Amino acid sequence: MSVHRSTPPSASDASRRRRRGSRARRRRGRPSLLWAGLTAGVVLLLAGGLVVKERSAPSGGPADAAAPAAPPSGRPSAPEDDTGAGTRDATTRETAKAEETGPAGKEGGGGTADRPDAGSIPSSGPGTFATASGGGARVGPSGRTLTYVVQVEDGIGIAAADVAAEVEQILADERGWTADGETGFRRVSGGTADFRVRLATAGTVDDICGRYGLDTGGEVNCNVGQDVMVNLKRWLLATQYYADDVTSYRALIINHEVGHFLGHGHVGCPGAGRPAPVMMQQIKGLHGCRTNVWPYDGEGRQITGPAVG
User: Is pTM beyond 0.70 here?
Assistant: First the structure.
């Protein structure tokens, strides 16, 4: 029996086989490397996305809070407050205009003055007064002219010039006492005046009115001698019937007390639904009448009622 023995491989054959094995191993390893590379790329992309999203979130808010939309045409967006500023400014101007108009509005109409807290209004003062400087033009028909000064008690925080301006406007109104065809007024600041309009604390009003035997009780106004005494509380707070129209109530105060100085007495309500006369004590109730602060209507007719004893 013959035995077959293989011929030992030559050096060149062995070298070729090693090269083929190495190439085969490299080919088998390429898919693994490619997959690893792709996987790493995906991980990096995901991580990058998270970083971008995290950076885009508004500071102090959640990451998914919506960012403000960019304004059109590349213009910077205006603050939200600007969108209503024009309306608010217009409203403020209209309110200021209404307050300047004051009692010159329709029957009983006019602006609403600021109403302070009742507890903040001083109840007494020194009893000394500051007189508004300057003077005003004569108002009313040709005939007798009554001169007056406007004075404000010291220490109450109200300028005499401001009160003088309101009083002048009231006495110049065509529905005021000048509508009687006989009476004119002119404000002065010195010399001899026919009467004085004096704004004072309740205590001072009580003191001056009390000298003539009148009890104002810390609440109401009066006319005594040449003094038209105006209670600071009523000037600032009005009454329940004029709570929303303090400015007009000031016209009622002046017209009522100047009316007394002119010789007019108290009257009652002329009938339900009719305007209350200024010489009616409206602070005690309207008795079916409606509010009114002028002695005459727009047609020059006097608004009055039955005499009250």
Answer: no
